[in-house]
């Protein structure tokens, strides 16, 4: 078991109660200047920012709920979800929509207070002060990047909230991206070099990775011949190249004993038994282990499974990505082996109609609970390599892009000790063929890691419609007359989530006109 990290929420330091963007600040926080008088106090405040990042409504659970359900790539055992967000029809009062908005802004507000409190003091350890502030800038940048990609727009709040300014109006998305870049650049300046960071905390390379993703997101809307954001993405991504390394075995990334803070990790959310992320509960069927206390929220759509297997039939990663046979624990103490799709093809069966997923499936089926030490990896080096391949192809074509994706494929061929000829190295593609293939390769390598929602959308609605909506609706394995098989609507509003209804009703600086189109 890894050493427990206690993320202190400390009520006197963080009495920030969110009602939409009305932020009522506990007056006791204003009297806590002594927290910024030394490194110990400043780190206590920083731990509060991370506590918010780990919150159930953020990376703990609801961020997974929102992004996975809206990605278009998963089914669920949660019946209510199949009728709304699982069917690409999220209402503005959906709890996941509201919770992610609220707690992401809580994370931002805590970072704002930390940055404000440290900006006017000089701690004895100047390097550690820079490190703390760099982490706050990074977490604020990441959180705003999450918000603007999910909701399309949001308020921009970068100063502590007081009783004189409890509300904030909607900001221009361009201004939000400007601030995201500014914060990430500040983080790059202030964070320590790779190898000098505290274990589990970001180094400069995390800021570079974030900036590369930001520029790739902005480049998604560029027309042919426009390469400025692609070039900026390359300039940031190449700073990370060679500073991290792939672990030797893909399978080891998904074992709790070997998964945390590896050489491949660029940034990950830290979890532990006492403050567990709900990963096993989210991804394990309710009767999939002895404790019988999981939710079975996510399982892969048929087209997701088939696309991987049809592209690389002998890819060793398949068995470490999907679960097609599992042990069901019955109330009477007995067990049953459950075989899922593709062996089971009948529809409307919660246990077997869809394949489950391996990465966060509870590996200890005899355990009594779902608590886990396993962290959640936000950025890892394999993703960086695929990003570099995509960027290089956009800038110069595939000739020098193969090298990056081939590193990922070479590691895949030996996953779990295998020796396979698949996936083979890439060759003989033109730029458009490479562009098409690389978008699928993200899913083959990174499925279940919260990249699907964003990658599926950043190429625009036409791409999303063809590769997500139509790929799903046209799959021959479904029977859309059955309640578990959901037909996706052809509606571009799904490119962003609705602005939470609570936000629009409680914030006097907003109105119904601030709602996203179609909601």
Automatic annotation (TrEMBL):
<keyword id="KW-0732">Signal</keyword>
<dbReference type="InterPro" id="IPR033985">
    <property type="entry name" value="SusD-like_N"/>
</dbReference>
<feature type="domain" description="SusD-like N-terminal">
    <location>
        <begin position="95"/>
        <end position="216"/>
    </location>
</feature>
<dbReference type="GO" id="GO:0009279">
    <property type="term" value="C:cell outer membrane"/>
</dbReference>
<feature type="domain" description="RagB/SusD">
    <location>
        <begin position="305"/>
        <end position="519"/>
    </location>
</feature>
<dbReference type="InterPro" id="IPR012944">
    <property type="entry name" value="SusD_RagB_dom"/>
</dbReference>
<feature type="signal peptide">
    <location>
        <begin position="1"/>
        <end position="19"/>
    </location>
</feature>
<comment type="similarity">
    <text>Belongs to the SusD family.</text>
</comment>
<protein>
    <submittedName>
        <fullName>Putative outer membrane starch-binding protein</fullName>
    </submittedName>
</protein>
<dbReference type="InterPro" id="IPR011990">
    <property type="entry name" value="TPR-like_helical_dom_sf"/>
</dbReference>
<dbReference type="Pfam" id="PF14322">
    <property type="entry name" value="SusD-like_3"/>
</dbReference>
<keyword id="KW-0998">Cell outer membrane</keyword>
<dbReference type="Pfam" id="PF07980">
    <property type="entry name" value="SusD_RagB"/>
</dbReference>
<keyword id="KW-0472">Membrane</keyword>
């Amino acid at each position: 078991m890894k050493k427990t990290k206690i993320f202190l929420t400390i009520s006197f330091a963080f009495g920030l109660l969110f009602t939409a963007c009305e932020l009522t600040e506990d007056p006791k926080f204003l009297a806590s200047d002594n927290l910024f008088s030394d490194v110990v106090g400043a780190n206590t405040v920083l731990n509060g920012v991370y506590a918010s990042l780990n919150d159930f409504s953020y990376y703990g659970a609801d961020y997974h709920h929102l992004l996975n359900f809206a990605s278009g790539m998963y089914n669920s055992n949660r019946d209510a979800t199949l009728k709304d967000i699982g069917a690409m029809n999220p209402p503005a009062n959906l709890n996941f929509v509201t919770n992610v908005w609220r707690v992401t802004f809580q994370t931002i507000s805590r970072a704002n207070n930390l940055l404000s409190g440290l900006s006017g003091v000089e701690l004895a350890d100047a390097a550690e002060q820079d490190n703390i502030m760099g982490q706050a800038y990074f977490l604020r940048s990441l959180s705003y990047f999450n918000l603007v990609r999910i909701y399309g727009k949001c308020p921009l709040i970068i100063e502590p909230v007081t009783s004189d300014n409890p509300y904030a109006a909607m900001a221009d998305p361009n201004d939000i991206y400007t601030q995201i870049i500014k914060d990430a650049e500040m983080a790059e300046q202030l964070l320590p070099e790779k190898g000098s960071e505290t274990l589990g905390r970001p180094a400069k390379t995390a800021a570079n990775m974030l900036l590369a993703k930001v520029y790739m997101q902005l480049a998604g809307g560029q027309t042919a011949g426009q390469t400025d954001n692609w070039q900026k993405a390359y300039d940031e991504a190449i700073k990370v190249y060679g500073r991290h390394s792939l672990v030797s075995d893909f399978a080891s990334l998904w074992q709790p004993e070997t998964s945390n803070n590896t050489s491949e990790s660029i940034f990950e959310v830290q979890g532990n038994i006492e403050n567990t992320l709900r990963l096993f509960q989210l991804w394990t069927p309710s009767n999939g282990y002895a404790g019988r206390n999981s939710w079975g929220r996510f399982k892969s759509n048929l087209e997701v499974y088939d696309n991987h297997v049809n592209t690389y039939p002998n890819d060793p990663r398949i068995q470490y990505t999907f679960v097609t046979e599992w042990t069901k624990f019955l109330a009477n103490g007995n067990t049953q082996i459950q075989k899922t799709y593709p062996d089971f093809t009948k529809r409307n069966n919660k246990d077997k109609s869809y394949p489950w997923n391996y990465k966060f499936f509870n590996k200890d089926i005899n355990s009594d609970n779902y608590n886990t030490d396993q962290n959640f990896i936000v950025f890892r080096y394999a993703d960086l390599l695929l990003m570099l391949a995509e960027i290089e192809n956009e800038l110069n074509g595939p000739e020098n892009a193969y090298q990056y994706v081939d590193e990922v494929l070479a590691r895949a061929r030996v996953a779990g000790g295998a020796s396979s000829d698949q996936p083979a190295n890439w060759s003989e593609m033109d730029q458009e063929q490479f562009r098409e293939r690389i978008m699928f390769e993200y899913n083959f390598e990174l499925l279940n890691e919260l990249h699907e929602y964003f990658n599926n959308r950043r190429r625009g609605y036409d791409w999303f419609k063809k590769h997500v909506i139509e790929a799903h609706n046209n799959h021959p394995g479904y029977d859309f007359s059955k309640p578990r098989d959901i037909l996706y609507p052809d509606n571009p509003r799904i490119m962003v989530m609705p602005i939470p209804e609570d936000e629009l009703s409680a914030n006097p600086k907003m109105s119904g006109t601030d709602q996203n189109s179609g909601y």
